[in-house]
Batch of 2 targets.
Target 1
Amino acid sequence: MSCAIEFSQVGLVYPAAGGAVEAVREVSFSVADGEFIAIIGPSGCGKSSLLKLALGLEGASAGAIRIAGREVVGPRPDVGVVFQSPVLLPWRTILQNVLLPADILRLERVAAEKTARELLELAGLGGFENKYPFELSGGMQQRAGIVRALLHDPRVLLMDEPFAALDALTRETMSLELQRIWTERRKTILFVTHNISEAVLLADRIVVMSARPGRVAAELVNAAPRPRTIEWLGDPQSAALARSIRAHLDRASAVQPLSRKS
Amino acid sequence: MSTDMAASTRPAERANFAGRLAGWASKARPFLSIPIVLGLWEGIIVFFAVEPFVFPAPTAIAVALVNGLFGGSYISGLQVTLTEIGAGFALGSVTGLGLGILLVSVPMLNRVVFPWVVAIQTVPKVAIAPLMVVWFGFGIQSKILIVALTCLFPVLVNTIAGLRSTDPDRVALVRALCGSRWQLLRYVHLPSALPYIFAGLNTAIVFAVIGAIVGEFVGARSGIGVLILQANYNLDLAAVFALLTLIAIVGVLLNIAVRFIERKICFWNARSSS
């Protein structure tokens, strides 16, 4: 398998009042084509910064990120993004929102609309094409956000805590939905989360980050077969993985005694 | 069984009718004070035998209004004033909108121009009205410019505020899709700013009426403002009140029109905030 994303020695320093803040230090890992990677870490460990760097919205202070072999120097059309909030435009219908990438990238309209309708159907939003975002529940809005990210068929999908704003039950449903969509549309996914069971359920590999400055504390492989279910999370195999992530997280955040709560 | 049903629907219908009546009553309540005030006003004028050149009775005002409207002088005056309001409002709003977009898009320009904008904004625009008459004459042009100037600032300031308040995630979304600056403005910034822009337009339309009347006071050949001055010189206070009523109705209708358009265009804003 070829390499879809490659972080090599990536560092990010923000200029701030009272000295610079080092968000990320010497982060190196790579993601294979079609792989589902979860990045997990304590809050403020720079995991969202890594996504911004991969999106090309910010420039790295050190090192480089390569997607499909080409270095990231700015936003690019082979990358899709899903944010923590759905970020739907309230004046556009669901279909129009999903077609936003087609408008911006000037894709062929008829084909794009056909793809949009298929994807909406796949995400269980068939029949909601002409509704406005405020007529949909939070979970449905986030699904529309995911569909929008898939519309222009990007090679890589970057997801920044996409289910963090949803309630626990919706969250589980959405995780299973994402797994289903991913199995059907096979993308390379970089999934940032702070939820251990979400990472265990979804990822092929889990990158554990340490507290600021964010570094790679551990890389754990999850070879469990798919489709995985919520019940599977109770199995000894997944429980052991979750425990291992927890241990790495505890060790990672122990570097900063102040952030520890006991 | 059918009688049972008939019996059970009738009270429901009655309750429904009573509910609708109560609904109308609550809607009509704010207007209920109007006949009471007018009646009291008329009574006091008649009782104390107040001269019409001191304070006119509502009936005298109504007669003056009807005579003026059917005599044609009010209609032609209204045409002139409405043209001034419409053209000035359009000119001022479009300029304010364009200037706002320009100032937000070009930070360099903003640093140079914005202090001037603030300085000019503090000057009451009606104080510039005599200048406009000197420069552009007694015709309709000077009034259009006065109206445009009064409309410009509320639209400009609100456009800038609206464009600056865009959700950063929406900007990140379009930028991540390789969106150009023009696409960012078209797909995100401008629609996001629409509720602010309409707040500016709502203020501007009220200012436009004031600007047109004041402009006509300062120097004009025709228009409602001119008719008010003429009636005032003749001590025809009933006509003055009739014209004031007319312009008040125009102002309210224009405001309702702007709000109606706002609700049509910014439908998503009204619903998400309610």
Target 2
Amino acid sequence: MIKLEPRAQPSRWLAILSPVLALGITVALGVLLFLLLGKDALSCLQMFFVEPVKNGRALAELSIKATPLLLIGLGLSLCFRSNVWNIGAEGQFILGSIFATWVALRASPESGPGLMIALLSAGALGGALWAGITAVLRDRCNASEILVSLMLVYVAEQLLAYLVNGPWKDPNGYNFPQTITFLSSARVPRLSEGSRANIGVPLALLSAAACWLFIHKSFAGYRLDVAGLSPAAARYAGFSARSALWLPLLLSGALAGLAGALEVAGPDGQLTTHVPLGYGFAAIIVAFVGRLDPLGVTFSSLLMSMFFIGGELSQSRLGLPKSITGVFQGLLLFSLLTCDTFVKNKLRFVSSGSARALAK
Amino acid sequence: MNELLLLLGSSIDSGTPLLLAALGLIINERSGVINLGAEGLMLIAAITGFATALATKNDALALLAGAGAAAVFAALLGLLVIWLNANQYATGLALSLFGSGFSAFVGIRYTQESLAVASHHGPYSHHYLVYVAVLLTLGLSWFLFRAKAGLVLRAVGESPEAAQALGYPVRLIRLAAVVTGGALVGLAGAYVSVVSTPLWVEGMIAGKGWIALALTTFATWRPARALLGAYLFGGVTMLQLNLQGRGVNLPVELLTALPYLATIFVLVLISKNPRWIAANMPTSLGKPFYPGA
């Protein structure tokens, strides 16, 4: 008989190994799925794991898609560490893109770097405000942050639809639900001529470094960890339970909002209903696969970006639906949670005699 | 007057999937297991039900197929959180994310199809599942508060340690609750794609699974109150559609957002009184249970 027993200390090696193992399981299940669909599994895998890292241009594309995932994943890691279940990052992302658009629509051709700073700050502010609604309702009215933050995603989607169909609609846009294309002064500057990668990439990496310092080196970060691991211990130590709710929510909202601003003023260049692509939800997986640690999240955001690009390539080149990305994302998180069991528990083989003794 | 009756009737129709899902989630949560995968389960059931209806032209079979598919995936969730003690919140989210990806993937070839289903118009003409849902509400109320098995289920949710000490197989009871609950959530999902709007659109559940989760809190885990809440939400949805149809001078988007805003409003209203929630919430909800620890 096999028994699961909690380990006194979670295994550190397995904690690192578990995402790798989970990826292996996901790939194996993916191959199975491709074979069932009668596709050549090898060329499918190539779309996911070779094409996105093939050359400089592909790598630039990979980093563009990884940027919002990294920014949002960092914020969600902070939330999940302190046991705040913010699953509405998609809505905070949308509000960030809306606030940034408000600034972008006021740009003139002569606007300098000040405008870009205002645009990105506005995005972060929008995301933080939207997350702030969840924080207020949790703090003041004890309403579940899971449900409130998620409901606010649907509300944000409608707000976005209203703006691009109504007051902000491009009068020369053939009635498409979209704003005007932003002036070049309101576009996120690119890293170099000819590359699509923009300053969002170093900005996201900087945020990752800042989050790492915050979590591992600051007292405030330590307080959040304690609040997440044991609310009772945090209370006993006199750490504020309210700041353990507000701080991660506002920070994650701001990071998601920043991601929204970078997206709308970066690759997209105009606000449409297609700006939100589900990065807010995918970032939940990014955070878990990255072990809620900024360094890990940096790697997992790249992996998830490969999933997104692989899905798009599978659609355009192999005629597979793009939604295959969603299937893999879900599978990856499932496998990870299964593998994680063995980080916190160990298997013990009990002979049937002693098993009977245990049962008694 | 007739119009009011029509609105009332259609509110009951559109509240029925919410009711079915909320009943399932009440069973689920009464056993101490929270299922954040409801949205994903409903999507999986919706596409399964729709595909079955298209292939067999059999309404009842389609609803059952949806319920069955959801039950299978709920069992997977159950194994992960009950035996492997995986985090219930994270696993539920995984199921919701997987369900939305999986249903979109499978459903891609069904987006152009639609079903020919007998329409139920008029205040007194409803699909039989509407009546089944009412009967289920009564039955579940009786089961939870009058039957011994229901008492055991609640005991498992309140104090799994005590239930185990009395000799009840806590894990098996929880799995049974998760699978049964999942089947009802699935029935709700299939109802949406087979009866309410007989077609498949990606993400067509549009948050109904999450609203049903909110309803369990709203109903303080009591079936009769869930019925009231579900019909109320059905009413908000129908009112909103009705106003859109009349071309009321309000942005369509605001009206579409109404059910979600109403959910937040209701959650705030109910949760404001912590004592009310604390007195009714299953004590071990969301917490892992280690037998023999």
